[in-house]
Amino acid sequence: MINSNVFDYINVMDRAADASWTRNEIISNNIANIDTPGYKRQDLNFEDELRRALGNSKYKTMDHKVADLRERHLEARVVNDYSGFSYRTDKNNVDIDTENVILAANQLKYQGLMQGLKSEFTNLQTVMKS
């Protein structure tokens, strides 16, 4: 049996793409609730979880860190962002301009992840043809 870690990076990028998709839904929900009194904006903490999971050992290569990741280490959670903060009298802390900028950045991130996944699968195809 061949033991290969060929899908390690693909799995991480897949989880990141899923988190980015979920973040799009959360941002859309924030925008939909812009006029809801007391609503607090939400976000996803995937990048923090990934950074924490990859930063466990500074003496390992990135390949080893990615290979050691388990799916449970990459569980993104929805969090209330700045839940104690509100600059509006109705206690809502959603700012449409901020949400639109975050949405645009997240869409670019998602497109980059999709391009990276496509590239990885193209590389696998090339190797399998050889």
Strand order of the largest sheet: 1-2
First-residue to last-residue Cα separation: 20 Å
Cα-atom radius of gyration: 18 Å
Number of strands: 2
Major sheet: 2 strands, antiparallel
Note down, in words, how this protein is organized.
This protein is mostly helical. The protein has one domain. It contains four helices and two strands, in the order H-E-H-H-E-H. Strands 1-2 form a two-stranded antiparallel sheet. Helix 1 runs antiparallel to helix 4. It is elongated, with a radius of gyration of 18 Å. The relative contact order is 0.19.
Q: What is the gist of this entry?
A:
This protein has helices at residues 8-32, 46-54, 62-68, 96-129, and strands at residues 42-44, 78-80. By secondary structure, the protein is mainly alpha-helical.
